[in-house]
Design goal:
alpha+beta; Alpha-Beta Plaits; Sulfite Reductase Hemoprotein, domain 1; globular
């Protein structure tokens, strides 16, 4: 574990993740680059490790703030609000890795951004680049009635152990870890991570089921089962051993073949395990990596209940957004955040609400780009609902069909082909305006990515959309590859069914929902149905939507969703890929 200079206190028990000296070094490197003393490639690698990406627009930067396990305090929400208001586009964007990122930041403002975040105990270190990325966790860890134990302190311990470690920012490619097992299954998509730790209990002992080598993008792989039950005391040894193997065997020449899953493809599972065991033996010979004392978990200081009558819409909100905690009389409330965007005013409002109505350190971002507020007294729920309504954040149905996940897409990403956010917004509004259609498959998951890399996690959605392009009369038309039957919980991947022009996506979705409603078996979920339906059946159903002649094309078909100008494909060297 690295020592930090004067780590900030996060609440009464927790230390921050920022390092003041590191911020000074970042500024020194930036100034050296501006003086021409640091080569562009060296500066690019350095800033990526510190969470600063170039956008597809010339000049603006994206700054990604690392939010370990998605845990936020009210004071940190205020810091995020100030950054979004003063130096970004007025919004903080929740990502599918539970981070918050800011777009359209001027390079000259980056120093102010990282210092303001650092003052709140937040860091951008290793949020990007060839590094150990944000370690994600279940937002219900510590409050779930189904969990064997709270994984939060173990995930945080791993974060602190690896952050700024000797290998953590110099890997062949990015490396992703998830901790879950809180809700009776793979609640964090651990199977498509480089390492997935899922909580298990055996004969009174705590441990993890461990999978290794998962990943999305063009070569999708579910991690293989490395340990049915790993005692919790050994998690550092496992994490470090896998990193060591990846560091020395990963492909550093071909970026497209550099992820851990390609190492396992090349060596085979048994070959990889042989190398992994060698590293564990070497670590043990060097004294091991004892877990030591776990980071403390704040004991919730419960707030007084704000009592008021229930207002319009409360009953549906209670049914769709509220989940009972294992702590008697307490509830976790999921705030649905369309497109993952929170305005500076909403961030401030949430911070104030949390201070008054929740408990310390009990806000968590989610992989679905939402926010969970925990330890709300049951009798205070009507007041909380009213607060959310005043902030424009009382939409019901998180993790239902209308809660569409999307990567930033061509709004900012150099690799994106299409405006994935435009499609996600269109589908969400389309379903909200047609509740009879949405009701056909309420619990279906829909996810959108602007390119094959899958940052929107469309490969593990019941229906996933992947941005692409086709030509009609020599002109580019935005289109989407439609995948069916993926599952986040269990990491099974969708199958490519058809390719449709972007503006035909709502009709495509409607037909698929009607197909499910007609053919589903008793009790069959939409995700299960689309995992088994024959592709030929889907293709026949959608055949007329896949073809578009010049005569059929409308002027709007040549404009991407959410845009006004004619669609064009802008190919750039990307700095971020799943």
């Amino acid at each position: 574990m690295s020592e930090m200079n004067h780590p900030q206190s996060l609440g009464s028990t927790r230390l921050g993740f920022a390092d003041e000296g590191e911020l000074d070094r970042f500024v020194e490197k930036l100034e050296a680059f501006e003086r021409g003393e640091v080569a562009p490639d060296a500066w690019r690698a350095f800033r990526l490790v510190h969470g600063v990406y170039g956008q597809r627009q010339d000049g603006p930067m994206m700054v990604r703030c690392k939010i370990p396990q998605g845990v936020l305090t009210p004071e940190q929400l205020i810091a995020l609000a100030e950054v979004s208001e003063r130096w970004s586009n007025g919004k903080g964007h929740i990502t599918t890795r539970q981070n918050v990122q800011f777009h359209f930041v001027k390079m000259e403002d980056v120093e102010a951004v990282v210092r303001r975040l650092g003052a709140a105990g937040l860091t951008t270190r290793e949020a990007c680049g060839n590094s150990v990325r944000n370690i994600t966790g279940c937002p219900y860890a510590g409050v779930s009635e189904q969990e064997p134990f709270d994984v939060t302190p173990y995930a945080e311990a791993m974060t602190r152990h690896l952050l700024r470690g000797p290998l953590s920012s110099t890997l062949p490619r990015k490396f992703k870890i998830a901790f879950g097992g809180c809700c009776g299954g793979d609640c964090v998509g651990g199977g498509f991570h480089d390492i997935g730790f899922l909580a298990r209990e055996r004969e009174g002992r705590r441990g993890f089921q461990v999978t290794i080598g998962g990943g999305l993008s063009t070569l999708r792989r579910a991690g293989f089962l490395a340990h049915e039950f790993l005692p919790v005391e050994q998690i550092f040894e496992v994490g470090e051993a896998v990193l060591r193997v990846f560091d020395r065997t990963g492909d550093r020449k071909n970026k497209a073949k550099a992820r851990l899953k390609f190492v396992i493809e090349r060596l085979g599972v048994e070959g990889f395990l042989a190398e992994y065991r060698k590293e564990r033996e070497a670590i043990a010979a060097g004294g091991g990596r004892p877990l030591g004392d776990l980071p403390p978990v704040a004991v919730p200081r419960l707030k007084r209940a704000f009592l008021q009558p229930a207002g319009p819409g409360f009953d549906e909100f209670l049914d769709k957004n509220v989940r009972a905690q294992k702590q008697r009389g307490q509830a976790a409330v999921t705030v649905r955040v369309p497109l993952g965007d929170l305005s500076s005013a909403q961030l401030r409002g949430l911070a104030q609400m949390a201070r008054e109505m929740s408990a310390e350190e009990q806000l968590r971002t989610t992989a679905e780009q939402n926010l969970v507020v925990r330890f709300i007294a049951r009798e205070a729920l009507p007041a909380l609902h009213a607060r959310l309504q005043s902030l424009g954040l009382a939409r019901t149905g998180p993790r239902t069909i209308g809660d569409v996940t999307s990567c930033p897409g061509a709004m900012s990403c150099k690799l994106a082909v299409t405006q994935s956010r435009g499609l996600a917004d269109l589908l969400s509004r389309y379903l909200d305006e047609r509740p009879q259609i949405a009701a056909l498959a309420e619990m279906l998951s829909i996810k959108v990515s602007g390119c094959p890399n899958g940052c929107g996690q469309h490969y593990v959605a019941g229906i996933g959309f992947q941005g692409s392009v086709r030509k009609i009369a020599g002109r580019p038309v935005p289109q989407y590859h439609v995948f069916v039957g993926g599952k986040f919980d269990g990491s099974s991947f969708g199958r490519l069914a058809v390719k449709v022009p972007a503006r035909r996506a709502p009709e495509t979705l409607t037909r698929l929902l009607e197909l499910y409603a007609t053919e589903k078996q008793s009790g069959e979920t939409p995700d299960d149905y689309f995992a088994r339906v024959p592709l030929a059946h889907v293709q026949a159903l959608l055949a007329d939507l896949t073809e578009m002649s010049e005569a059929e094309a409308t002027p709007d078909d040549f404009i991407d969703l959410g845009e006004k100008q004619s669609f064009e494909v802008v190919l750039q060297e990307g700095e971020c890929a799943a």
